[in-house]
């Protein structure tokens, strides 16, 4: 009887966990692969909403002029304005419906982002519009067939289209299993004989298909293991509150803290500052080129918030934030991402670390490839298991002796 070794244990754990979660992991990894280049696909499918022709020697409308024009046309209040660094891109504008009589629906109520109906009195989510910055013309909204497709992909990725907590728990449990699969796979990647370790770094393409399939599972899984672990460990933050709280305690910084943060409170006063003043002040405090997001409060006792982030192929998906006095544009607080402690930086990058845009297009490409590999692993792993079963069931050769031949005759 063969001795049951640690390697055999890891192999059995890897095998049976993989079989138990293979179908769910295939769906989750496939949808993750599709979602990686969501923004790029949406721009490709509907370029008129995201880009404009830049008139010769023309400058974008001043923010004050643009905001006044949109508020008059759309019968609402501008609460956010996204100004991209790219001069050929449209602006994204958030419009809160104007208050109607007795807090009822305003005239400008329209479908907001995600298809929700905007309600007067600030009761609904602000509607989002894409605007030509040179003319002020509204060229589109986020709603489209492509956006709806990616919304379905996201729902399938996060909870398998199963409403309630059931789907989220299934995905979360499968993600935990996936973490163990990656770790046990790394252990199994190391050969029994250390001198043969180089074999795990390449795919023997001229071998039989069973060997090629084994190498695809073994080698590609090894190369993508680090990114797959990052995806799994960050993805669990959306599945389980206990995990999110535990990670916050370990890191010494709250995960998704930005969702709860509110702008600073200021004293009410007569306003003399304009949106253009806010932007100029932010550019003085953050003197580099990048995308700007201006958040305008509806009341007189809340600070203006401006976020600025760098763009480019290797750009880090992190933003600096400035809070200004709404009435005077005086700086109240400046938060630079580079000045934060390392633990806060890591926690602040949970979402881009999961989505793959942590280092712009460069990291998206790497994540896309790793997601493709992850999608293939349940398939190649199942084929390896089936091949081993067939090998065990294969009958041994029958030795015909002279005595046996006599009995048969």
From TrEMBL:
Positions of region (Disordered): 94-124
InterPro entries: PepSY-ass_TM
Key words, A-Z: Membrane, Transmembrane, Transmembrane helix
Keyword Plastid: no
A Pfam cross-reference name: PepSY_TM
S-adenosyl-L-methionine among keywords: no
TM segment ranges: 12-37, 169-192, 220-243, 365-386
Source species, domain of life: Bacteria
Basic and acidic residues compositional bias, start-end: 102-116
Name of the protein described by the UniProt record: Uncharacterized iron-regulated membrane protein
């Amino acid at each position: 009887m063969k001795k049951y070794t640690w390697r055999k244990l890891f192999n059995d754990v890897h095998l049976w966990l993989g079989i138990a979660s293979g179908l769910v992991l295939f769906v989750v990894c496939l949808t993750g692969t599709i979602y990686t280049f969501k923004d790029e696909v949406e721009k490709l499918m509907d370029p008129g909403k995201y880009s404009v022709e830049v008139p010769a020697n023309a400058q974008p409308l001043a923010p004050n002029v643009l905001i006044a024009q949109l508020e008059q046309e759309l019968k609402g209040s501008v609460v956010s304005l996204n100004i991209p660094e790219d001069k050929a891109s449209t602006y994204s504008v958030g419009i809160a419906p104007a208050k109607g009589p007795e807090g009822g629906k305003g005239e400008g109520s329209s479908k907001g982002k995600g298809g929700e109906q905007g309600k007067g009195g600030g009761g609904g989510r602000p509607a989002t519009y894409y605007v030509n910055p040179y003319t002020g013309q509204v060229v589109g909204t986020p709603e489209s067939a492509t956006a709806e497709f990616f919304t379905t992909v996201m729902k399938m990725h996060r909870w398998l289209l199963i409403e309630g907590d059931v789907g989220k728990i299934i995905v979360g449990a499968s993600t935990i299993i996936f973490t163990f699969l990656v770790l046990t796979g790394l252990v199994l990647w190391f050969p029994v004989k250390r001198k043969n370790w180089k074999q795990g770094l390449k795919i023997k393409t001229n071998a039989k298909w069973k060997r090629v399939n084994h190498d695809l599972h073994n080698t590609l899984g090894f190369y993508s293991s680090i990114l797959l672990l990052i995806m799994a460990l960050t993805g669990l933050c959306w599945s389980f509150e206990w995990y999110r709280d535990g990670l916050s305690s370990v890191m010494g910084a709250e995960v998704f803290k930005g969702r709860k943060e509110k702008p600073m409170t200021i004293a009410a006063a007569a306003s003399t500052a304009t949106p253009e003043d806010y932007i100029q002040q932010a550019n003085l405090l953050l003197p580099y080129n990048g995308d700007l997001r201006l958040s305008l409060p509806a009341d007189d006792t809340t600070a203006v918030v401006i976020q600025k982030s760098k763009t480019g192929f290797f750009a880090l998906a992190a933003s600096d934030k400035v809070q200004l006095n709404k009435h005077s544009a005086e700086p109240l607080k400046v938060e630079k991402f580079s000045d934060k402690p390392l633990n806060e930086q890591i926690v602040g990058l949970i979402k881009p670390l999961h989505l793959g845009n942590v280092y712009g297009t460069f990291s998206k490409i790497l994540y896309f490839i790793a997601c493709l590999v992850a999608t293939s692993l349940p398939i190649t792993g199942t084929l390896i298991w089936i091949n081993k079963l067939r090998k065990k069931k294969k009958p041994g050769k029958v030795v015909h002796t002279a005595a046996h031949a006599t009995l048969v005759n």
